[in-house]
Amino acid sequence: MKKIALALMIFCLTAASVFAQSDLQVLAVVKLNKNESITVKQLKARCDVYQKQVNRALTVDEKKKVLNTLIEEKLVLQAAQKAGLNIPDSYVDQYFAQGMSQSIGAQVTEKELAEMVKKTQGITLDELLIKQVGMNVAEYKNYLRNQLMMQQYVVQQNQASLQKVAPTDEEIRMAYESNKAQFVWNDMVKVLLVIVPKADNSDAAKLKLNDLLNKYKDKKMTAEQISIQSGSEGSGYQAGEILVPKNEASANGIGMTLQNLLYIFSQNEGYCSDIQETEKDFRFISILKKYDAKMLAISDIVQPESTVTVYDYIRSSITQQKQMAFVQQAAQDLSKSLNTSDNVEMKKTGAALDKLLAWGE
């Protein structure tokens, strides 16, 4: 019995060793600027990311396409490095935070995001990303850095052509006619919102807001002056002139109920509230201007007090779409032009490659 148990143990150890050795096998070497190997393990990691997205295992042919993607990414990345391009850590951190903020619909720092994930899901940010994309924060940021560097290099190599990419007048007007119903103003109100956090002294906060309110009512300070002064170091309060549409999301965004926001809309321009108390602060709100809902013509401005017309907005949107498509195509053309036998050495091909890519089947 002991001999059987020992034999099974040896078999398991041997099998684990074989799998480990298989993962370390080199599939290709990219050598445009330096020698970089792509191993089975690296390919598996990228395939895992794609499999999470499509929610199924990839076929051997699909894995080959992923391998080719890895090769071409390394080629463009090496070309970018050879050209001396580099993306600072601070920019990567900012890009990461912006991307995560967009995904959750709120502007947060990386620290705030980590705290939010821990509080709501009971896991770390590392664990969340591993679950979603198969990479921890450091690995994902490195992936983003590489993507940004490659994109910057492709743009740099095609700057002159990229600047010529633009929609025609006919395309802009057709886009407007096709989406005319989307170009509308909701009822909106421009308000001055002034907030004094309670911090650890509620009475002092209320006195400070009362002083600001009296100065505003007595016309000793304008809305603009109050807003500008709030940005001074040690001002102790927050203030701003905000354009607020009539909907629940906007109400929540400024810490109000929809019922209270509707009450604000029922008041006339010049209305100024009394001091309102919330759990964390004291505040007052004043109506600066009201805007009625309307359908927008192509020559109208897209938002009150802006200079951007609907025509400008559509032109900018289509230009971005066209430039993105141009950059994607340029990246594909560049990577294919670099993918030569001089720059890439395939270590596994044919049946040998198929055998290594048949994991999970």
Explain what you see.
The chain has helices at residues 2-24, 40-54, 60-82, 89-104, 110-121, 125-133, 137-157, 159-163, 169-178, 202-217, 223-230, 248-253, 258-265, 310-338, 350-356, and strands at 26-30, 36-39, 184-185, 188-197, 238-245, 276-277, 281-291, 294-295, 344-346. 58% of the residues lie in helices and 13% in strands. The protein is α+β, with helices and mostly antiparallel strands.
Topology:
Elements: H1 2-24, E1 26-30, E2 36-39, H2 40-54, H3 60-82, H4 89-104, H5 110-121, H6 125-133, H7 137-157, H8 159-163, H9 169-178, E3 184-185, E4 188-197, H10 202-217, H11 223-230, E5 238-245, H12 248-253, H13 258-265, E6 276-277, E7 281-291, E8 294-295, H14 310-338, E9 344-346, H15 350-356
Antiparallel strand pairs: 1-2, 1-9, 3-8, 4-5, 4-7, 6-7
Helix pairs in contact: 3-7, 3-14, 4-7, 7-14, 9-14
Keywords:
9 strands; single chain; 13% strand; 361 residues; alpha+beta; three-stranded antiparallel sheet
How would you concisely characterize the structure shown here?
With 361 residues, this protein is an alpha+beta fold. 58% of the residues lie in helices and 13% in strands. The longest helix has 29 residues, at 310-338.
